[in-house]
Design brief:
The complex is a heterodimer of chains A (about 110) and B (about 300). Chain A is mostly helical. Chain A contains four helices and no strands. In chain A, helix 2 runs antiparallel to helix 3. In chain B, a hairpin with a 2-residue loop joins strand 4 and strand 5. Chain B is rod-shaped and about 170 Å long. The chains are: A mainly alpha (about 110), B alpha+beta (about 300).
């Protein structure tokens, strides 16, 4: 319940304030969002499996976001930012898909 | 790395075997480890510490806060993307408009090119026609030049020598009218070009007395008068005798006692007369030949 409330509040806050992202951070925002999405789905799956842990969630969320952004930043500095962000998105996308598949299994008992 | 050997890794329990992350294909590995392993570790630690695992750990306030951050992140990204999208849409629309405009311009230019090409074709045809006309006019000019005396010519002919009678005086010297009669007779006899003492006779030439001298083409000439006549050297003297005007000439020269001699000149070349300078007449523009008198006239 508190999780759903937090999410809703976050969306509302974001809509109200719509902070301007500095142009320099523009390319990292989508990657950060995908990484956060991965962490959130992982947490949901862990919750459904009964092994959810607050600390692990917080740590995995922030480390995911930071590492994804750092990889893309490094790629930008090396001139392969596009390729590296593609790689990050592919890996995170596979993780998200398999987590969601597991969640589906728990929710629908299929 | 592929050769089997003992691995001293973080999993001593699986010694003698390669770890998963070495043997498994990458994609399978990613799929299998899609859940953060930390959750398992934490759960195992809890089980070890508290004996039994908690039935359903509830997400606490920290998780709510993190989700709040997540919500903000997602919303900001979405808003930013849509904001950028409107900007990039605008630039895209302007690009599309520009493309349309340029394409329109291109087709205009293409049509213009077609028009110009057909014009070039027409002009080329006209150039060819004009070149043909030019050649025709050039040969006509040459013919006219020969006829009127403004082109140098050569050909067979006769040489006619005329001078006054010895110890002649008064009216018995050769005058302009005599030379005029002689040249008229020569023209009538079939002469094609005549020069007198090197002065070519043109359509405008006339003999004129000034004092005792005779002017032709405004140049004085002295006796004896040598006429180079291009024409048929065989028939010209006979024609001169036979024609009516020739008869008159012979009568005149006999009565005045002129010394007159006609002989074959072989191949002769006659100079061109210098064409008169035109001060007022200009070549009429094409199609303007029918223009009538337009200026102020005295009548």
């Amino acid at each position: 319940m508190i999780a759903a409330l937090g999410l809703l509040l976050g969306v509302v806050l974001g809509l109200i304030f719509t902070p301007d992202v500095p142009a320099g951070l523009d390319p990292y925002l989508p990657i950060a969002v995908v990484a956060a999405l991965d962490a959130v789905f992982g947490a949901l799956r862990a919750y459904l499996e009964g092994i959810f842990d607050d600390k692990v969630f917080v740590v995995s969320f922030f480390s995911n976001v930071l590492i994804a952004a750092a990889i893309v930043y490094l790629g930008d500095k090396l001139g392969v930012g596009g390729q590296l962000s593609t790689g990050v998105i592919v890996v995170l996308g596979i993780r998200i898909f398999s987590n969601v598949a597991q969640i589906r299994r728990y929710v629908f008992h299929a | 790395m592929a050769e089997p050997r003992t691995v001293r890794g973080p999993h001593p329990a699986r010694q003698g075997d390669l770890p998963d992350h070495v043997t498994e294909p990458l994609l399978t590995l990613i799929t299998q480890r899609s859940l953060d392993a930390d959750y398992e570790h934490a759960a195992a630690r809890r089980r070890a510490a508290g004996g039994s695992a908690p039935a359903g750990p509830k997400p606490r306030r920290t998780a709510g806060l993190v989700l709040l951050v997540f919500g903000v992140l997602v919303t900001v990204a979405a808003v930013q993307t849509s904001r950028d999208a409107s900007a990039s849409d605008a630039s895209r629309a302007s690009l599309v408009a520009q493309i349309d405009l340029r394409r329109q311009g291109l087709s205009d230019l293409q049509a213009q090119l077609d028009r110009e090409a057909s014009r070039v074709l027409a002009l080329r045809t006209r150039t060819r026609d004009l070149a043909t006309a030019d050649v025709a006019e050039g040969s006509r000019l040459e013919r006219l030049g020969v006829r009127t005396g403004f082109a140098a010519v050569e050909g067979p002919g006769v040489e006619v020598t005329l001078s006054s009678a010895r110890d002649s005086g008064g009216s018995q010297v050769v005058r302009d009218a005599d030379l005029t009669l002689l040249t008229d007779a020569l023209w009538a006899a079939g002469a094609e070009a005549i020069s007198v003492n090197g002065q070519r006779l043109t359509a405008l030439s006339a003999f004129r007395n000034v004092g005792i001298a005779i002017l032709v083409n405004t140049r004085p000439i002295d006796p004896p008068y040598v006429l180079d006549v291009i024409g048929d050297a065989d028939t010209l003297p006979a024609n001169l005798l036979a024609s009516a005007i020739g008869e008159r000439w012979y009568a005149l020269k006999d009565s005045l006692g002129f010394r007159f001699d006609v002989r074959n000149g072989g191949r002769m070349s006659l100079p061109a007369a210098s064409p008169p300078r035109l001060r007022w007449a200009e070549v009429a523009p094409e199609g303007g030949a029918r223009r009538t008198q337009m200026g102020v006239s005295g009548s």
